[in-house]
Amino acid sequence: MEKIMELPNRRPCINTRTDNFHFSVSFHPDTGLPIEFFITGRGKVGQQLDEELYELSVKTSKLMQGEFEDDLPKLPKGDGSSSVPRQ
Hints:
three-stranded antiparallel β-sheet, flat
């Protein structure tokens, strides 16, 4: 079983933005490693883009914390070569 990183309640973070998005990255205070990432859009709360950005943020943060979700479609086992040409 994977050990989940214990996060302190308060941690340093940086925030920045573009014309359409706001970004926030927080860091573990002891290691300095990034442990959370959030992105929000300027759209209204509840719109599909807002929901997708939230899901992206949660998945990214979990990856940074060592929680790996294998929710991608399974690829056939092999040596990496394929007889099917890429599009």
